[in-house]
Amino acid sequence: MTNDLVVIGIGQALRGDDGAGLAAxxxxxxxxxxxxxRSNVRVELAELPGIGLLSLLEGTRAAILVDxxxxxxxxxxxxxxxxxxxxxxxxxxxxxxxxxxxxxxxxGRQLSPQHMPGSIQLIGIEAGEIGMGEAISPPVAEALTKxxxxxxxxxxQALA
Amino acid sequence: MNQNIEIPALARVExxxxxxxxxxxxxxxxxxxxxYEPPRFFEGFLQxxxxxxxxxxxxxxxxxxxxxxxxxxxxxxEAAMGVSISPQARALRRLLYxxxxxxxxxxxxxxxxxxxxxGHESVISLAGEAPxxxxxxxxxxxxxxxxxxxxxxxxxxxxxxxxxxxxRWPDRQSIYNLLPDLRWALQASLETVEWAITLNYPQFExxxxxxxxxxxxxxxxxxxxxxxxxxxxxxHTAFEKHYLETHVRxxxxxHSHSAAGTTYFVGPLARLNLNFxxxxxxxxxxxxxxxxxxxxxxxxxxxxxRAIELVEVCDLAIELVExxxxxxxxxxxxxxxxxxxCGVSEAPRGLLYHRYIVDEHGMVRFARITPxxxxxxxxxxxxxxxxxxxxxxxxxxxxxxxxxxxLRSYDPCISCSTHFLKLTVERS
Lengths: 160, 428
Fold this sequence. Notes:
heterodimer, A: Rossmann fold, B: alpha+beta, 3-stranded antiparallel beta sheet, 43% helix
């Protein structure tokens, strides 16, 4: 499956703001259907991909990952991060299965760099509430439009 | 070591958990395994839901073992409403379970436990030294996920299994196309067994009561009766009478004991020790080739049991794929009726029990989910106490690692629900 670009929303829809990445990708698909339906763009909604993220990244030139993050900032803050930002020693992930995005990308680069996209960008949405069965909290819900426009910018940039 | 140990977040353990070991006058005074456990939330969340939503909701308890939650829940609900599935649907469910075992065992053997046994901090550093080994692990895991996706529609939270069978039969060719990968996976599993026996397992033998499902005709994964190494064998409907859950102050999770008050141990060691005779010939031969002596009473050697089970499920998956000929309705049609039923299956981490009460409209009125890790908590704490006298003689960091390593050998699935990237934004 070769595409120029893959856009991957990551998160657990049943845990409040943890699902912000999935929700932002859906908003982007609805707001920018022209971009989202391009034949050279693949869209994945991956709840808990773990190490399976590597399979989702295979065969693409560029990737945009959209995920909830926690940096201590205000809920709803949208962060634009490069892959290098993720290798920052302060960015460790508390992932289910011990496999966060940062570790998975590092493993992929180390083992099979030829199968990894040339560029990977992460759009992180600062999470607030993560209660089981909760909806996305108001400040994060409000930020989804902005996150979607950041996805669109990143998509245009990647395809330019 | 002369300080308390606090491991606020356990690395390479699935989900959220913390361990506290407190010392007083040079001796261990307190050990707490603190657990955040989502199945309790799901028990409440399921009340008032339609029965057919249950398998898809419970699948989301775990990203690694969603099939187990589906298989125990559909069987419990089928029992509650008096539904019998077709032999074909049962075979496809067994195949779906094989897919989950392949991806879950490959992950735990190579990515989560092996780094401890070969002295690496993580699989990333292991990959630097042994890239081919880690590539093999990734390919094995991918094979499992592809089979999961071919049957369940998605590689993480499959959606096809339902009460009564499956929503649709997977396309025969798409299942068949996986045969070359599964044949490769069988060979890779046999190699995994031979590699696993070369690892240095810490000396730590305990007298456990092992509990696992058992089935007269097959190595029990999908269903069976509940067998204990103490000699008792019960129908699964009597499970809650024999295995009790109690609340302990320091944990959100309930802790299980047998009715006699003993701790017990579920999971791959229990299955292998209790059901070796039902393993397929190729898996038995793999065990004999490495001169495996049963029973295994060392929790670190769960890795060996998982490796032998990998052989079992790869070989079984090949047989089930070759025999797969979908015909007729993929699910039984039935009218919901009021009732109560329970279901059990062997999740990769051990026995998983579900019980539901549904009303005449098929709405869930009560749900009970007893996951394998909750059943093992009390045993894990007992093991930590057994390890403590020697571990606290070690320097602080090594002592922490020793406790973590023991816990990781259990492959605890504490919560599979959050995946936050913890991020420190540094601004200059």
